[in-house]
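Lecture notes, part 5. Sequence design as translation. It can be helpful to think of inverse folding as translation between two languages: the language of shapes and the language of residues. The source text, in structure tokens, appears below.
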């Protein structure tokens, strides 16, 4: 009986394909998608390194961010034209264009894309913003620039495209997405994608595995995901006009959502293992359905990242449900605030859901230097007692020693019975602003803990960038932007704190009140708005 290994063999036991000259076999490999060509290396010794010679017949053209500010646009156009002519008869593996045509004839740009398509391009990245985009995620260009109009006809000869990224352009006509039979990865940003177009994408791209939608302002309904395709990863970022997300996707294992919560949300995904839920809502808003049932009823979930606003939406109803996260291994909480209600929401999250497999916990603490008022009776009354038996590593970032942070730290130390390491990452400017991180750390090191083997480590956020102890989602682009903004805010807050400390040193309470109420200082540094006044009084009249 023949096996798969016998398929290429002739009647006399000869492997005719392997018997071909290397030149012909390399030519055959050059016609295959890259990943399939690499797989031929396991067939036999004669094929082991042959696929590497395939790249002599292919090329990669990248006109990326180094062309962001060309001194002469025509010079850049000429360079692209010369590259295209030089590789006219070679297969193009990747074509990356980061360019705004401005007054350039659109037909010239379309001709570049068509030539790449005809040369069998597999990965096509088209970003027509050239970095000149709105400061807010609105999907618009700045300085009154108009988006490039991209007709669907440029893709009509596509037979090999597996990855496509379109950013900041207008899809003209009635896009059918009918030329993407092999497409597996699709990213759309700042595109006029509407509900009808999305249905066409799902229906006409049967091999689609990854879909990423960013700043698509015309999109209102995200439905039938997985009904027509094999999508395994779905990302939705800053699409604020979406009203309904109704997902039935049996193969989906990764779901990332950052932005305004929709009016209705249903996520029927039995094997979801990777999830990001980040909300832009500042306060709890009434949602028409129960987020706990539709979102967190996933026992297969292993990695979760969420924020304080999302916790308000998920836990704000106060209803206890029977859902569990029993297989969750890593949890990251990005806390914009840490008031009494936020602290209680963290307690609720641990109490309501079974987190028996949780091993690693990352908490991004607020960047504000004001210590929020806590309702101590609410926080101290009946503190939860849990058995986090598998929690081994905890990292608190932007730690400042505020009373709410101390309550959180004590809660974790008392309940993590198998804890091995807890990292307190102070802002590097903490000491410059008058704090003493080493002294505070030494004091906290004496705190009682449930795990006798737990050790505490001191570090600083600015020195921790290359640390291997990072959340699984730390490389996510939107989260990296979020963390960058956090670092900017905290550095600016430290600077203001240091300035205030210098101005108020040695002054009386009356003088402090006068300084804080002065028009120049008060308006420029926003002392009162920051809520720092009680802290300054304590700094002056208390021990330094």
């Amino acid at each position: 009986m023949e096996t798969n290994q016998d398929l290429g063999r002739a009647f006399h036991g000869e492997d005719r394909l392997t018997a071909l000259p290397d030149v012909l076999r390399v030519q055959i490999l050059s016609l295959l998608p890259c990943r399939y060509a690499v797989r031929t290396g396991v067939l036999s010794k004669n094929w082991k390194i042959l696929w590497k010679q395939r790249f002599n017949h292919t090329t990669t053209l990248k006109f990326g961010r180094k062309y962001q500010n060309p001194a002469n646009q025509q010079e850049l156009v000429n360079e692209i034209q010369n590259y295209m002519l030089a590789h006219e008869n070679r297969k193009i593996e990747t074509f990356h264009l980061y360019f705004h045509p401005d007054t350039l004839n659109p037909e010239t740009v379309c001709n570049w894309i068509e030539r790449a398509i005809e040369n069998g391009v597999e990965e096509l990245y088209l970003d027509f913003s050239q970095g000149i985009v709105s400061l807010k995620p609105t999907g618009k260009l700045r300085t009154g620039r108009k988006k490039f109009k991209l007709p669907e006809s440029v893709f009509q000869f596509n037979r090999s495209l597996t990855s496509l990224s379109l950013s900041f352009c207008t899809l003209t006509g009635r896009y059918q997405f009918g030329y993407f039979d092999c497409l597996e990865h699709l990213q759309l940003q700042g595109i006029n994608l509407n509900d009808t177009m999305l249905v066409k994408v799902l229906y006409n791209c049967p091999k689609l595995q990854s879909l990423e939608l960013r700043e698509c302002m015309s999109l209102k309904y995200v439905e039938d995901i997985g009904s027509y395709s094999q999508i395994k990863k779905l990302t939705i970022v800053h699409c604020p006009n979406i009203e309904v997300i109704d997902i039935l996707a049996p193969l989906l294992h990764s779901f990332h959502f950052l932005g305004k919560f929709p009016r209705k949300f249903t996520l029927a995904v039995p094997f979801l293992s990777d999830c990001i839920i980040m909300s832009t809502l500042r306060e709890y808003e009434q949602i028409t359905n129960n987020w706990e049932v539709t979102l967190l009823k996933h026992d297969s979930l292993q990695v979760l990242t969420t924020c304080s606003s999302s916790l308000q939406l998920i836990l704000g109803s106060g209803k206890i449900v029977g859902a569990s996260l029993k297989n969750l291994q890593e949890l990251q909480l990005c806390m914009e605030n840490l008031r009494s209600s936020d602290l209680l929401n963290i307690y609720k999250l641990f109490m309501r859901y079974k987190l028996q497999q949780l091993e690693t916990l990352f908490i991004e603490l607020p960047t504000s230097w004001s210590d929020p008022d806590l309702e101590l009776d609410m926080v101290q009354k009946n503190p939860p007692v849990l058995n986090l038996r598998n929690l081994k590593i905890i990292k608190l970032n932007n730690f400042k020693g505020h009373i709410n942070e101390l309550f959180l730290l004590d809660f974790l130390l008392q309940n993590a019975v198998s804890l091995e390491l807890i990292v307190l990452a102070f802002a590097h400017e903490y000491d410059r602003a008058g704090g003493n991180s080493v002294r505070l750390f030494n004091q906290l090191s004496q705190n009682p803990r449930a795990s006798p083997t737990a050790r505490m480590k001191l570090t600083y956020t600015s020195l921790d960038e290359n640390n291997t102890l990072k959340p699984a989602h730390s490389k996510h682009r939107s989260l990296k932007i979020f963390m960058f903004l956090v670092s900017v805010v905290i550095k600016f807050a430290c600077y203001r704190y240091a300035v205030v400390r210098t101005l108020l040193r040695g002054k009386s309470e009356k003088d402090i009140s006068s300084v804080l109420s002065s028009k120049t200082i008060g308006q420029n540094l926003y002392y009162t708005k920051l809520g720092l006044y009680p802290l300054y009084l304590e700094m002056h009249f208390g021990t330094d």
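The translated text above is only one of many valid answers, since several sequences can fold into similar shapes. The first helix runs from residue 16 to 19.
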